[in-house]
Structures are given as C-alpha cells and as structure tokens.
Amino acid sequence: MPDQTILPDAGPVDPAMRGLIKLAVMAVGGQGGGVLTNWITDCAKAEGYAVQATSVAGVAQRTGATVYYVEMAPAGVSAPVFSLMPAAGDVDILLAAELMEAGRAIIRGFVTPDRTTLIASTHRALALTEKIVPGDGIAQPDEVVAAAEIAAQRLVLFDMEEIAQRSGTVISASLLGALAGSGALPFVQSSYEAAIRASGRGVEPSLAAFGEAYARAKTGQNQMPGRQDAPSLAQGDEPRGPDRLRRRWLALVARMADWPEPLRQMAKRGLVAVVDFQGLDYGADYLDRVQAMLDRDSAAQDYCLSIAAAKYIARAMAYDDVIRTAELKTRSGRFHRIRAEMAAEPDAKMMLREFLKPGAAEIAGMMPRRLGGWFAANPARMQALGRIFGKGRRIRTDRLGGFLQLYLIAGLKGWRRYSFRHAEERARLNDWLAEVQRRLPEKYDLGVEILTNQRLIKGYSDTHTRGLDRYGKVMAALRLVEARNDAADWARRLREAALADHTGTALDGAVATIRSFSDPPA
Amino acid sequence: MAERSFAKEVLKLRLGAGDTFDGEGILAITKALLENGVGYVGGYQGAPISHLMDVLADGRDILNELGVRFEANASEAAAAAMLAASVHYPIRGAVTFKGPVGLNVASDALANLSSAGVTGGAMVILGEDYGEGSSIMQERSHSFAMKSQLWLLDPRPNLPSIVKMVGQGFELSEASHTPVILMVRIRSCHVTGSFTARDNCPPPFSVKDALASPRSDYKRVVLPPESYLQEQDKIENRWPAAQDFIRRHAMNEHFGPSDGKIGIVVQGGMYNGVIRALQRLGLADISGATEVPLYVLNVTYPLVRDELLDFADGKSALLVVEEGQPEFIESDIAAQLFRAGRQVALHGKDVLPMAGELSGKLMLDGIGAFLKKAAPELLPAQRRAPNDRVDPAIPDLTGAVPERPPGFCTGCPERPIFAAMKLVTQDLGRHQIAGDIGCHLFGSLPPFEMGGSTMGYGLGPASNAAFDGGGEKRAISIIGDGGFWHNGLSSSIGNAVYNKSDSVIVVVDNYYSAATGGQDVLSSRADNPAKSTGHPIAAAIRGVGVTWIRQIDHTYDVPKMKAVLHEALTCAYDGPKVIIASSECMLNRQRREKPLRNAAIREGRRLEAPRFGVDADICTGDHACIRLSGCPSLTLKALDDPLRDDPVAHIDQSCVGCGNCGEVADAAALCPSFYRADIVHNPGRLEAWFNRLSARAIAALQRRREARRLDFAKG
Description:
heterodimer; A: six-stranded mixed beta sheet; two-stranded antiparallel sheet; 53% helix; disordered N terminus; B: alpha/beta; Rossmann fold; 4 domains; five-stranded mixed beta sheet; globular
C-alpha cells in the first residue's frame, strides 16, 4: 500500500473543476432517498447543468444504510467525466437523512472542513442495536454534533423528519427544502418547487414540507437534537378533584416545604406517582420514608441519597400490577391521547383492542395475602392457576362490555392493600431500605447505589421475575465487596452489567470478577 | 408483479432514431438490445439487474410487436441454457443475471455453450454485485470468462459507451462464434445519463423462423470426439478472430498523449475513477483530457497482445488499475511483457489494494504513489513533498455511530416466524439452523440470530444434509419460495425425501421472489396475465414424496406458528417435516392495497385502518418486545419524566398494523402495554349509533371515577 501522507488535494487543477458540484445523500432504506435524488437531478437539468446520479440500492433498501451520489457541471463544459462514487475529502454537499447517518458520513471522510456543507436532520431512526438493550442503549447525539461542527465547512441542522410528518409526507421533501434554503446549490427556489410538481405524486404535502424546511434553513439557525418530550404526569400543575382531597394534597405538599430544592422537585414527582397509584395515605407513607433518608443526609453530600430515595422509593411503591394496568387503560385521558396519536377525527369510530395475558404470579398477587401465599408456595398450584386464568385475552375497551371488565378490576384499588402482591412489595421495600440504612452513614455512596438498584426491577410476568432475580444477584455480589473502599463503584458496575444485555452474560461476568478476588483461596 | 411499475420506463423503449434517451444504465441496455435486433431475451432477477427483468416484463407489448421472445427463467442455469438457441440459428439472444453468483449457477450451461460455439450473437448481461451495496460474497466473475473462454466486456460506465458495447458485443460474438459477457457494476446499472436512440430493429431471423426450419449439426454437440475439436477450434480460430475483431473495431480505447513515458492500463469500468484521480492531481481536465496515456480495456478478456505491446512501447512504467482479486489482468500483462522481453516496470496491486472496491481515496492514493515512483516530474513540487496542510482533527465517531445492517421491513410476515422460532428455542434449547438466500436470511442477524450459514440459492435444507440422520435435537433449515422454485424442490426437498432426512424444513412463502424486487414465482397468488402462477408449494412437495406437511396461512399467528414448530421438533415421525409458512410480503401488499384502501375511503365503503400503540405509562422499558421483533416501526422514546431512567417502547406512524406486536406480547407473555387501534372509515349507521352509545356509557363511567380521585393528568 502507498504511503498515505503524499498528495495534498490542491494545486493547478483544471479551473473548470471548481464548477463541478459533488453531492451525496446518506439515508436509511425507505426514506425516499431515490425520490430526493431525482428531484435534485431534475432541478439541475432545468438549470442547465450536466448531471449524473448513481446509487447502490441492493439489500440496503430493506431498512439498511444507503448512499446516493450526484455530480453536476455547469452548462458550457463539454462532456464532463463524472465519478460514480463519493470520495473521502471530495464532497461539496452531504445530505444526511438522519443524525447518525451524518456521523457515518463523517466517519467515511465525506465531510471535510475545506469544502463540505453538511445538511442533516437531527431526528433519530434508532438502530436495532440501540433498541434491544434492556436499559438505555440509545447512542448519544452530542459526540456526532460536536464532530459535525468541526468537520463541516457549513452546518445546517434541524429536525426535518418532524416537519415532514407534520406535512404528511416523508423526509425527502424537507431535506430538499433545507438544501434549497442553505443556498449550497446555485439554483432558485422555484426550480426546486418545479421539480417537486413535475414528479406528480403527493405534491401538496411535499411542497408544504419543502417550504417550511426552506424557511428554516434560510434563518441559518441550527437546532440541536433534544430528548423527545412526552410527559405523562403534571410537572407542577396542581391536581383537579374534590376539594377535600385537594386540601389533603396541599397538606402533603406542605410537608416538603423546607426540603432542599432539588430534592423537593424529585419528591414532588414521586409524590404525584405514589398518590396517583394508591391515594393520599400512601403518599404520606412515601414522604415518611423519604424523610427517613433525608434525616441521614446533608448538603455536604448534595442530598444525593435523599434524591435517589425520592426517585426510587416512588418507583418501588408505585409498582406495576394488574389493577394499575386496568386503571391506566380505562382513564379518559388515555382515550383522548390515543385518538390524537392515531389522528382520528373527533367523532370517528375507533376500535381499541388490549392484549393482556396475566400470568399466575399476577393472579395470585391479586388474591388475599394468605391465599396468594398458599398458591405461590407451590409451583404445581401456580401452574394450575396459570392454566385456568393465564390465557391471552384481547379486550375491546371501546365497547362497554370489554371496558367494564377492566373498569371493575381497576375498582379493586381499595382492595389492593390487602393483596398478596402488596404484602410482598412492602416486605421487599422494607428489606431494601433496611439494606440502605444499615450502611449509613459510613457507606453513603453505597447506600445511593443500592437505592438506584431499584432500576433493575421492572416489567411483568417473566420479565419481572428476571428483574427480581438480577436484583438478588447484584445484592448478593455486593455483600462480597462491601468492605472495600470502592464498593459503590462495584455496585454501579454490577447494575450496568445487569442492564447491558438480556441474557445476563455481562452480569455473570461481573459477578465472576468479584468472586475472583473476594473468594478465599482454596 | 414486481414491487415497482415500470410503465413510464417502458415508454422509453419506444424511442426512435434521433430521439434522446434519458435514464438509468440498466434501462439503456434494454433499449440497446432492441436496437440491435435481439431475437430472444431472458434471465433471472437479482440486484443490480432486477430492473432489466422488470422492465422487460412490463414491456411485453413492445417485445411482442417486434417478435422478440421474453422468458423469465427459473434460474440462471435455465437462462444460460436458453442461449442454446444461438448455437445453430443466426439469432441474437441475451440473458441477464447477477455475478458472480449467477455465473456459479449458470456455469454448466455456459461451459457447454462456449464449447459448442455460437452462430447468432449470444450475450450474458451480468450485474457484477461487488463492493458497496453488494449482498453476496466478494468474488470476481473474471475467472468464468477465462475458464470457459467467454469474452468479457467491461465498458466505460457511461450510457453511450455501454449502449455501443451491446452492439459491438453481438458482432464480436458472431465474428468469433463465442458467447460474450457484458459486465456492468452496481453503480453503472443505476447511473443516469443519455444517449441518442436508434430505431428498434425486429430480429432478421426470429425464434419462430427457427421453429419453422429447424437445424442441427452434431459437430456442435459436446460429445467426443467433437469436444476435443471444439477446444482446438477455440484456440485456433475463435480466439484469433476475437483479437482481430477487437483491434479492428477499436473496442479498447486510448486517451492522452501517444508518447508518454508512463501509462495506465485500466478496466473500462474503472475509467471514471482513474480520471477523477487524475483530475484531482491536476493531470486531467474536467472533460477527461489527460496528460497520462491511458489504455482502456473495454474488453478485459481476452487481452489483445499486440495492442498491449504497442501501448507499452517506449514506456518505462505501466500501472494496471484492476478491481478485486486475484489480479488476473495484471498477471496476464506481466506474462505478455515478459514473454516479449520488455523492460518495463509493472505496477498495480503494489500501490492499489488487492481486495475490495477501488474507492476515490484509494484511487487517488494509488495513482499518486505510482506517479511518485515512476514519473515524479509530472507532479507539481508540493505534491512530492509530504502534506503540510493542517486539518483540524475530526473526532473518531466509530464508537458513537451504531451499525445499520438491512433487516426485515415494517410488518414483514417473516418476523413472526422467527419470533416463534426464538420462543421455541427458549423452550427446547438451541438447534442447528441453516438458512438459504432471501429476505429470511435477515433472521440470522440480531435480534433473532436464528441460523448461521447460507450455502446458496435453494440449498438451505441441502446444507443441513450432514445432520439429517437425526440426534438429540433435530436440525432446522429455512428456504424461501424464491429459493424453493430456483432449485430447492429438487436439491433440497427431493434430497431430503430420498435420504429419509429426520429434520425440519421451514418454507417461507411470501408470494413473491421478494428480496429481488417482488417478481412472481410459480406459487405466487397474483393473477399474472403473462405467466402461469398459483401452483401451491404444498402440492409440489407432496408430489416429490413429503408426507409430513403443515401449511400455515397466516404467519402472524405466533402461538400457532410456535405450536407447529414445537410439534415438528418433537413428534415421533422420523422423515422430513416441512412447514410452509405463508403470508404476503408486506412491501408488496402495501403497494397493492394502498390504492384500494384510498379508493374505499373515497367511495364511502367501510374500512378498518389498524395501527398498534404502546401505553408509555404501562411500558417499563425492558425492551423484551423489541428483542422478539426488530420492526423498524417499533422503536424507543425517552420520556421527560425524572422518575424514569430507561426509554420506553414506542410505535411510530409507519406501523402497518401487521399484528406481530400483539401476538408476540401474547405468546411470550410480555406485558400489557400494547394496544391496537383501528380507525373505522365510513361505519354503517347502526354501527355508528352503537358506537356513540358505547362511547357515552364509557365516558360516564370514567367521569364517575375521576370525580372521586385526584386527577394529575395535564389539560
């Protein structure tokens, strides 16, 4: 292989080469990259340019990453020889139909500071590897944005997918708008619009998305990628409801009045979750438990312990059970939300099917404490229970009959306190908090990590069982290292391992590492 | 019916003399075939030449008018065998398929054809699936040309050059009685451009004429002693005739000064890449006028010895630009130069990579390195010195950007098959699983990871033959309907019956050859006026002796799919167990149904439009559902809720309501957060009335309960 340091790409090249425009589109299969390429070439032809486009469709059209490439030369150049593929360090305009595709373009060297205008949509189409992680596997956009700011000569960055969706079309239209608005090509706006019109399909939505993205790009203001916003609980608004309940609610809120600010914010969210789950008395219990942690906390430690407590005690107390599911599924707000999401006309009929399959554990959990315990103690009984009740159910909650089934289960909320599941959850909650208290004040950081381990317990049926199992494994492994100074680090590492994959391989590896230095030599 | 309609493109096939054709390379080739009096065309679809087959299928009328026979062959072998029509008859014929895998399949017929020799021009239009965008193993087709003595054409990748090569290729084939391969790479197939059209030309001698006056000559049959004579004929007559034709018609081209001290020998298909590198080095202008002499091999096999030696005359160094490995051309040139006693330095794979596509950067670096060694004076001073321009360091993003391999489309009917298989594996343990060629091979990737091999089209079950004796657990193989009809029925199913194979075969029947663009196959359900479809796979396998057959007509029924797989893996029967899992390819189904749906809504007919959703407050963010799906529309959403650490599942508006999410949630007992919402367009009056009644009653119950508790919901 040649030595890579020679040949700077500058010098007495043919001056006409400077008029040559090289444009690449990095897209995900199904984003309309082909349509976009056609629009650009049509537009270039109309403006008198000689133009050539190529692509590598192949299997990439099936949801994979794909590249389209266009070269154009102004009128007057005789028979220009175009390249069939983008070359690293030699791309003038790079359109990325997704943020990580912009990252991929940068990796491939298609974005360079001496020449490239990078036009990228900030939205994410998550790759499978990001989605299958049991915890949070979503790639962070910051690194890509930071690299884009260095690599691109000019950067046009905003959410073009959102604009396309609002106009009822696909991102190719808003990408074209951003390209036109950026002024990176020497073409007038009407040329682009004529290309869209000439394509003849979905013209109006495409023009709307084009126009909005055009105006957005014209401002020259970039927009950084943000987290999606879908709050399910109020952020500070006070609840509606009977005055009697609201007065008691305010009294609960007042108990937090002298708590430090960051804690109060978290605890307010927690309180909403817990009261929403099981009422005001339950909320008072929650505040007591957070207070118990606050009593062992201090400003010197930034109240990390009590903030973690406020967050995870709320999560533990508002556990996921059948009654909760039934309640959430029958609330009026949910019906409105789904109608909005499905873009249903106000009086259009919408059928709504729920897919429920309560397992034996969930059925036993709803029983009185002793009875549920009797079933749970014996696998054969549990199996029988699963056979009888555990069938998959599809319930039509838009019909009165189906709705009533869930509505009645949701009505068991008052009964929940006497259920087997509640007893189990309370026992676990007490044990867990005792584990924290036992380590205080010496092992403050470890206490915070143990609180955070609540994150491992989630889901229903098998998923829930697996979560409990991992939680148990992590806690057991912690006992082996708790005397060490870096016990809190190990706690964090164990938890991250438990969330890294669903097979438990990473966690087993971490536990084995701990055993390797904690076990007494044989 | 292919997944795209080519009605608009077909119109371009009607252009006459003087009209300007404007379009993609593959369509230009189709037009050129008609202009050159082709008598019959055929082929087997596959990227990057699928469109050629699709356009021909949609262009039936034009072909009929011209008297051209079009056949959608069952395989590449069948396509190559069709060229037999040109052995005795003066008919030009062309078939198309992808390379090199299509050549692998076709090589039996092509070897026989080459030995027999041809009377009419015989051409294989080969889509070389190499480099970025390729879906197959990375090999070259070049060796097939060498071993069977077929001439290999590799025109410069622009429409006029490609179109010209179609005509010259037929003439070369006729002049040398040898079939030719016209090779086009992925990007050349899709490259846009224009050329001046000529009138279409009906074949002077058609296949119908041949049937009216049949001919045969045993000297063309590959049997001894003729086979020995045919080999001699190749060397003594056909080869020299070809060299002579290539030279006389200047099929290979020269660019640049005639007296340069160095020169570049380049495959026609690599010409644009070389010019771009020279343009960037300041050694060629925008129109390709170059200061470095170029010898462009539009015919890469055979080499024309005299032409090559003439080009080497007076030069001290040559660079061979040849993509892929082994470096057949460079070795051939080295041998020719050595035999002729030439003292010229030969460069090629010393400055260019042996393996992989020649990208712009590699070409620039490689040619630069060659010039630096062989003719540094051509490079301006600053080029000879190391790069002193300081670029800001661009951070390395390789760890930050996730891979994005292809996978099953939204709503794909194959997804639930693999979800069921994964669930069965959870119950019965891992199994030996072999895949075939086709969309189903995506099942070997995460999140399913079902299957660890693919041995070729139609060979999935055959590739499990070593395990067919049975054991503690049965082996499973998967084959698509495309592979089944390609040669799977005999090589895989028949083989399993004959050998009493105790294994499980899953035939994935999605009604089309889906991975190649949705062409019909024998078992397709679509009404195809030009072809005979509707022949069930079950009937075919019963015919070859399979007795244990389970037909599933709705793959989205995961519990059923799971139960059948379970039965196949555990039942007592020790012969081949075949499960036919049938549901229509969603990509094609959406294309077919979307216009019908829109029409129904417009015309006031009742229509249910399904879509799935996830209740964000019920989902706990474990993502187990995604590990059993991988659907592009099933994604994640980060909630703006400080109590939640992990993003929750979310179904975006691209969902087509296939049902997999609900079925999997049920079969795997996942979680209750999925729902299916159907918007009912144009409901009946009674239905609408009943719906209003239900809605009112439900709203009243909701108000009743919401009046007794604190309501934290916004708004």
